[in-house]
């Protein structure tokens, strides 16, 4: 009888190991395509709205709206972009700031992101976590991750 119980227990453990881990894995990646509200790191207030779209197997992000105070310039330009960047002195509203992301499982990486506030371009990785878009810009092993909120 003890042997039968041990055998049943081992079968249960084996089934749990095989099927339990399969159920514990995340489901299919949630799409990053759509509109996302960016949040200012310092104030926690909405800063802009970015539309992420797919084109020819790559993903891009374009600023479609800015949330500006009444006393701020309502149509700022990227005056801090580098001189050799075609976005230099162009309006930030309508600017493509995320370029060439490629989907790799549930992450989107190998692209770049521009911070129009300082004109710097960073390597970029995006993923969805709990319905929010995690946006990581990095140089080597230095990085900053922002959380963007879905608009749709």
Structural features, described:
- It is built from 1 helix and 8 strands, in the order αββββββββ.
- A hairpin with a 4-residue loop joins strand 5 and strand 6 (120-129).
- The protein has one domain (34-150): Lipocalin, CATH 2.40.128.
- The protein has 152 residues and is α+β, with helices and mostly antiparallel strands.
- It has one helix spanning 2-24; strands spanning 34-39, 46-55, 58-66, 96-104, 107-115, 120-129, 132-139, 142-150.
- The protein has an 8-stranded antiparallel β-barrel.
- Mean pLDDT is 85; it is low at 4-28.
Q: What is the strand and helix layout of this fold?
A:
Layout: H1 2-24, E1 34-39, E2 46-55, E3 58-66, E4 96-104, E5 107-115, E6 120-129, E7 132-139, E8 142-150
Antiparallel strand pairs: 1-2, 1-8, 2-3, 3-4, 4-5, 5-6, 6-7, 7-8
How much is the average pLDDT? 85
Beta-strand residue percentage: over 45%
Low-confidence stretches: 4-28
Kindly provide the radius of gyration, computed on alpha-carbon positions and rounded to a whole number of angstroms: 22 Å
Q: Please, how many domains? A: 1
Describe the structure using short key phrases:
globular, 152 residues, Lipocalin, 1 helix, alpha+beta, 8 strands
In short:
This protein has one helix at residues 2-24; strands spanning 34-39, 46-55, 58-66, 96-104, 107-115, 120-129, 132-139, 142-150. The protein is of the alpha+beta class.
């Amino acid at each position: 009888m003890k042997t039968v119980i041990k055998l049943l227990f081992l079968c249960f453990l084996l089934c749990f190991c095989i099927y339990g881990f399969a159920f514990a894995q995340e489901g299919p990646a949630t799409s990053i395509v759509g509109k996302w509200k960016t949040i200012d790191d310092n104030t926690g207030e909405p800063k802009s709205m970015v539309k992420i779209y797919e084109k020819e197997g790559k993903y891009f992000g374009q600023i479609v709206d800015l949330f500006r105070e009444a006393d701020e310039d309502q149509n700022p330009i990227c005056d801090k972009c580098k001189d050799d960047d075609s976005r230099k002195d162009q309006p930030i509203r309508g600017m493509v700031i995320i370029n060439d992301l490629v989907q790799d499982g549930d992450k989107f990486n190998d692209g770049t992101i521009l911070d129009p506030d300082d004109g710097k371009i960073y390597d970029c990785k995006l993923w969805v976590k709990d319905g929010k878009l995690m946006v990581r810009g990095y140089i080597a092993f230095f990085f900053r991750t922002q959380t963007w909120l879905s608009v749709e």
